[in-house]
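sorry to bug you again but im stuck and you know this stuff better than me. theres a chain ive been looking at and ive put its sequence and its fold in token form underneath. id like you to explain what the token line says about the fold, in plain words if possible. anything you notice is useful, everything is just below.
___
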Amino acid sequence: MQYQVFVQNPSDQTFLASVIGLPNMTANGMTEKEAISKLKNILDAQFKNGKMVTIDVDLPCEESSESCDPWIDNIGIFQDDPTFDEFLLEVSAYRNEVDRTENRL
């Protein structure tokens, strides 16, 4: 398994290596190589006693999410309605009448 490691040199005497995405996984060293080596040892020790798993979490609806769009629940509700075409013709006729009325004003 591979991890991306962010290495910093906060002072002239130490390097700090941290695993991206695992904020509590860090190690210090006098050199960059030492900090990375220590971090690798920490990761190795963690995986000897545990493992990574993937879980699904239900998040509250966000406005930008399609899955929370109220229109999504109604997609296809008129698919088998034999009167839907007539309904669309009535809507079109009504809109045309409204447009003609507004243009006269």
About this structure: The chain has two helices and three strands. The beta strands are 5-11, 14-19, 26-29. The chain has a mean pLDDT of 87.
